[in-house]
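Q: What changes when LQZAQKY5 is included in the input?
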Amino acid sequence: MSAETTPPPLLDIEAATRLARALVSPIAEAETVPLAQASGRVAARRISAPRALPAADRSAMDGFALRAGDPGEGGTLPVAGTIAAGEPRRALSEGASLRIFTGALLPEGADAVVPLEDCIEEGGRLRLRHPAKAGDHVRRAGSEQPEGGTLLRSGARVRPQHVGLLAANGIGALAVVRRPRLGILSTGDELGRDGQGPEGIPDSNRPMLIALAEAAGAEVEDLGILPDDRDALVARLQALGGRHDLLVTSGAVSMGGRDHLRPALEAAGGTVEGWRVALKPGKPVLFGRLGPTAVTALPGHPLAAFVTFHLFVAAQIAQMLRLPWTPLFTEPARSGFDGLRKPGRAEVVPVRMGHGQVQGVPILRRLGEGGSGSLYPLAEADGLALVPSHLDRIRTGDRLHWYRFACGRG
Ligand SMILES: Nc1nc2c(c(=O)[nH]1)N[C@H]1C(S)=C(S)[C@@H](COP(=O)(O)OP(=O)(O)OC[C@H]3O[C@@H](n4cnc5c(N)ncnc54)[C@H](O)[C@@H]3O)O[C@H]1N2
Ligand code: MOO
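A: The predicted holo structure follows.
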């Protein structure tokens, strides 16, 4: 058997993930972005609270500001005016009250707010239903956030709540880790020729991989479709000139005579660092380098490209963004399906949660027949389940681990 027809032994998922991550480096450069564009980015530095908040005592209720224990005249206090949020601080004369709105500055001399519903206002005077205590319904200066407290950790992904918190602190721009630069291309003479005879199909991997990469926090250059032509592939790879942190390709990576990716990468001056994983779908995935660029070549079958993106490319993007990476399949579940299988490759299965649970964990229904060419099972899938490599049979009720799709993971 020639070297071409004797493939290397399969890597297991863990070893392949370690290799994928080792081929990319955490990005050291930071850039400053307006707060409005910071959601989803990774903070390059810790942001501490520039001051304590609230900056001054404020009312927490619509009601009346007064001095607790002020006996008033005959048990009533005159209402000496109104103070609303955004107005300058007022002073309260002894024995009086001021109508106050939520968020308004507590008047000097007042120490409590009595909510509207706990008062009776009559003829410009106020009677309390219950006596007030000092501090009632007052948001004390400094009580909600200490000066110097952490608003955002270095290395944290900025979430919408951080955007609100930073805005509340008057922070309008933020240093974030530069996005990883990805180039994404598809290979195949059949692609993009749909409508021109049955031999053509649309390119579905490229738009899907671009969407996945952008959702994971990368900046993507769309490198289009390349023909099944080794020389064209070599020329294109050489022309990339190392401008990407990671090149992601799909197709042409299996065993056939038209699977030019591996020889083309080597002919272009690159190296193959690992090829083929004990995974179904996704076996022919390849990891390599091309100068300063890491190369991850995904299988052409669309479901295999989707699965290998989640396992390996997402881990590489997280590594470049300096984010921690946890294995994908961590949530416990029970199988809601049965079947004999050939051991030797871990199997990733699109699944949907049924209505039932066993001891609080969901029972997962399998979608699709296990082919790697169709994305159709993903239309209704809640996530992906992992069937361990050594099993020769999976039974209803067996323990599994799965990855539940999030709306915008990370
Ligand atoms: N003799 C062997 N043949 C195959 C093996 C093997 O071990 N020995 N492995 C099989 C496995 S597993 C997979 S997965 C596929 C993957 O092969 P490639 O990565 O070389 O992919 P292609 O042959 O280029 O394409 C496979 C299939 O997917 C369609 N495709 C490709 N790109 C796209 C795209 N961008 N959008 C939509 N569809 C795409 C393509 O038309 C093919 O139908 O190899 C097996 N063969
Ligand atoms: O690994 Mo391939 O993706 O099984 O079909």
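Observations recorded in class: The mean pLDDT is 94.
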